[in-house]
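Anyone up for a design puzzle?
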C-alpha cells in the first residue's frame, strides 16, 4: 500500500488535458489519464510531479506557438501597413492623374470649340468660293457676249 503522506488527491481531469499540435499526442495523454484514473483515485507525488512536468512542457509548447503566432502577426501587420502605404500612394497618383485628365478634357473641349469655329469659317469660305466661281462664269459669259457683239459690229460696218 502507498504511503499516505506521499499521496495527494487527484485534481480534476481538465487540468491534464493538454493542448498539443498533434492529435496523437493528445490521445496518448488522454489514455494515460484514463488508465491512471482507473487504477486509483489518488496519485503519488511522483505521478503528480510527472503530470506537472508534462503540463509544464505543454504550456511551454503553447507559449512557443503563441510567440510564433505573435511574430507572424507582426510580419502580417508590417506587410498590411506597407500595402496601405502603397495604396495611399496610388490613390494620390490617381488623384493627380484625375486632375490632369480634367485639364486635358478642358483643353480638348477648347480645341473642339475652335475646330467648330474653323469649320463654320471654312463653310463660309466655300460658299464665297462658289459665289466667286459663279461670278467668274458670269464675267466670262459677259466677255464672250462682248466679243460676239464686237464681231457683229465689225461685220456690219
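Challenge accepted. My sequence:
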Amino acid at each position: 500500500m502507498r504511503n499516505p503522506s506521499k499521496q495527494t488527491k487527484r485534481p480534476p481531469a481538465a487540468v491534464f488535458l493538454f493542448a498539443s499540435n498533434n492529435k496523437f499526442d493528445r490521445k496518448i495523454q488522454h489514455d494515460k489519464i484514463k488508465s491512471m484514473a482507473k487504477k486509483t483515485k489518488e496519485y503519488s507525488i511522483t505521478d503528480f510531479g510527472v503530470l506537472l512536468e508534462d503540463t509544464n512542457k505543454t504550456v511551454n509548447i503553447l507559449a512557443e506557438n503563441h510567440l510564433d503566432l505573435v511574430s507572424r502577426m507582426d510580419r502580417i501587420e508590417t506587410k498590411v501597413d506597407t500595402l496601405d502605404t502603397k495604396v495611399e500612394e496610388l490613390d494620390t497618383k490617381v488623384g493627380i492623374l484625375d486632375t490632369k485628365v480634367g485639364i486635358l478634357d478642358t483643353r480638348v473641349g477648347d480645341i473642339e470649340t475652335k475646330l467648330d469655329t474653323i469649320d463654320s469659317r471654312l463653310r463660309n469660305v466655300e460658299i464665297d468660293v462658289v459665289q466667286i466661281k459663279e461670278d467668274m462664269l458670269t464675267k466670262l459669259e459677259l466677255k464672250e457676249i462682248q466679243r460676239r457683239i464686237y464681231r457683229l459690229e465689225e461685220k456690219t460696218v
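A detail worth pointing out: The helical segments are 23-39, 45-156.
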